[in-house]
Design goal:
The structure is a single chain. It is built from five helices and 17 strands. By secondary structure, it is α/β, with parallel strands linked by helices. It has two domains: 135 residues, UDP N-Acetylglucosamine Acyltransferase, domain 1, CATH 2.160.10.10; 47 residues, no CATH class. The strands form three sheets. Strands 1, 3, 5, 6, 10, 11, 13, 14, 16 and 17 form a ten-stranded mixed beta sheet that branches. Strands 2-4-9-12-15 form a five-stranded parallel beta sheet, with no helix packed on it. A two-stranded antiparallel sheet has the order 7-8. α3 packs parallel to α5 and α4 runs antiparallel to α5. The longest helix is centred in the first third of the chain and has 21 residues. It is globular and about 65 Å long. The structure holds coenzyme A.
Length: 215
C-alpha cells in the first residue's frame, strides 16, 4: 500500500508535464515520455514521436531536434550520465556522500537534423549528432557523428549505405523543411512522396524547386 501514493504522484507529474510540453510545442507532434527539463530540449516543426530524455543537469546537456523528424517508440536520448572513470572508483561518491549535485559528465549537446528517421528502441548518447536525412536502424546505438543521408545501424553503429549519392543529397539538403507549413506539405505531398533514385539530381531538383516556391 505504501508505494501506491508515490506511484500515483509520479504518474500525475508525468501526465501534467506531457500536457505542458504539448502546449509549448504546437508546431510539432512530439510527446514527453518522462519528466525532463524543457529548457534543454528543442524540437522543430512537424517532428513526431516520444521523447524519452535522460538528463543529469550538467551545463552542456542539450537536445536539438530538427523539422520532419520521425522518432519511433522506445527511443532514448542520454544527455549525459557518464560517471567519472579517472578516479579510484566510478561510484558517485560526490553525490552520495559529499553533498555534490552532479558527479556525471556529458560529452556535449545531441543534435538531430531535419528529415531524420530514428528506428525503434535506438539509444542516442551525449555528444552525438545525426546528420540531416539520416536513418537510424532499430536498436542501434549512436555514439558519434552520423553523416547526412546515411543509413546507420547496429552497436557499434556503422553506415551501411547512403540514401542518395552526393549530388542528389546536396540538392535535397537545400530544402528548408522548417519553413514548410502543414498546408504547404499537403500541397507538396505528391512530389514529396514520389520516389527519388539513388543518383537522381533532376527529381531532387524538381522537389527542391517546388518547396522553394512553396507550391
Ligand atoms: C535500417 C533499416 C531501415 C533497413 O535499412 P536498409 O538500408 O534497407 O538495410 P538492409 O536491410 O539492406 O541491411 C543492411 C545491413 O544492415 C543490417 N541491419 C539492418 N537493420 C539493422 C538494425 N536495426 N540493427 C543492426 N543491423 C541492421 C542488415 O543485417 C544488413 O547487414 P549486412 O550488410 O551485414 O548483411 C531497418 O533494418 C530498420 O532498422 N528499420 C527500423 C524500423 C523501425 O524501427 N520502425 C519503427 C516505426 S517508425
Amino acid at each position: 500500500m505504501g508505494g501506491l501514493f508515490p506511484d500515483f504522484l509520479g504518474r500525475w507529474r508525468v501526465a501534467s508535464f506531457r500536457r505542458k510540453w504539448r502546449r509549448a510545442n504546437p508546431h510539432n507532434e512530439t510527446q514527453a515520455i518522462n519528466l525532463f527539463d524543457p529548457n534543454r530540449v528543442r524540437v522543430g516543426p512537424h517532428s513526431y514521436g516520444g521523447l524519452q530524455v535522460e538528463s543529469w543537469g550538467g551545463a552542456e546537456e542539450f537536445l536539438e531536434i530538427g523539422a520532419l523528424v520521425s522518432i519511433a517508440g522506445g527511443v532514448k536520448f542520454l544527455l549525459g550520465g557518464n560517471h567519472l572513470m579517472d578516479r579510484a572508483t566510478t561510484y558517485p561518491i560526490g553525490v552520495k556522500f559529499l553533498g555534490a549535485e552532479l558527479d556525471a559528465t556529458s560529452k556535449g549537446k545531441i543534435t538531430v537534423g531535419d528529415d531524420v528517421w530514428i528506428g525503434m528502441d535506438a539509444l542516442v548518447l551525449s555528444g552525438s549528432s545525426v546528420g540531416r536525412g539520416a536513418v537510424i536502424g532499430a536498436r542501434s546505438v549512436v555514439a558519434c557523428a552520423v553523416p547526412p543521408y546515411a543509413v546507420f545501424v547496429g552497436n557499434p553503429g556503422r553506415v551501411v549505405r547512403y540514401r542518395f549519392d552526393a549530388e542528389t543529397a546536396r540538392i535535397l539538403s537545400g530544402i528548408d523543411f522548417s519553413a514548410l507549413s502543414a498546408d504547404s506539405l499537403r500541397k507538396l505531398g505528391r512530389l514529396l512522396t514520389a520516389p527519388i533514385g539513388f543518383s537522381d539530381p533532376s527529381s531532387a531538383a524538381e522537389v527542391a524547386d517546388a518547396c522553394a516556391s512553396g507550391l
